[in-house]
Amino acid sequence: MIQSRQAASCLAATLLAVTATACTTRSSAGTEAVRQPPPAGVFDYQLGGPYPPAGDVRIVDRDRTADPLKGIYNICYVNAFQTQPQDGRWWRVKHPNLLVRKQGRPVQDPDWPGEYLLDTSTAAKRTALLEVVGGWFDGCARKGFDAVEPDNLDSWTRTGGAGVLTRSGNIAFARLLVHRAHADGLAIAQKNTPQLLTAGRSSIGFDFAVAEECEVYGECGRYTSAYGKHVIEIEYTDNGRAAYARSCRARSGQLSIILRDRDVVPEGTAGYSYSAC
């Protein structure tokens, strides 16, 4: 069923002349065909809640609980290495052994309170996590999304001294996620984590990249070296507009580049801001 959906999506993309969108087969993993986002397609990041995008938007990224849109490329956001704040109790009750713990208490992301770190430290725990996160990928595919964006790949860098998570453990889990996404007919993004750009495409198997604030941190060139034009760049208004302006001057028409409010709230909500170049 998913293979048929993807084939139909590719045919529809051709008929609609979605710019430079290609269908490729991930034969190394024995998976179905996946479709990349259209390079430099106008992008909208709607994690804070769905709303109708502007008429020129060709790529939309929404939370897995939202629905995709017809006629454009849809990316499904999944918090794959941490919990969502509203799901914390569910994880503590249903899967307490899959949370990183320090002195018996679940460890939270220091920058995002309420997001507990998922424990990727052993093969058994990674397999158990895949049952949950992989099931969310399956749901994204059933809804009709074209790709997934698994967040917080770099969770091993903020364990708060717990010393459980490692780079190698997260890489191993990422490989499982890539295989599951491709088996579902979904492309899959590397989210941030420039430390893994060399491995991200070549050995982990990510298809494209979603890079937050890469101009602010001087990292955009590293992403394009790894993924070419298959990079979606998001800058944020709380850093000012200078980094966004530099990116537009340097890479407009080559990458998907937007400026967004930090909370990515829906249009019509206080604090909403969106620009694309």
Automatic annotation (TrEMBL):
Residues 1-22 form the signal peptide. PROSITE patterns: PROKAR_LIPOPROTEIN (PS51257). SUPFAM superfamilies: (Trans)glycosidases (SSF51445). Keywords: Signal. Residues 43-265 form the Glycoside-hydrolase family GH114 TIM-barrel domain. This is Glycoside-hydrolase family GH114 TIM-barrel domain-containing protein.
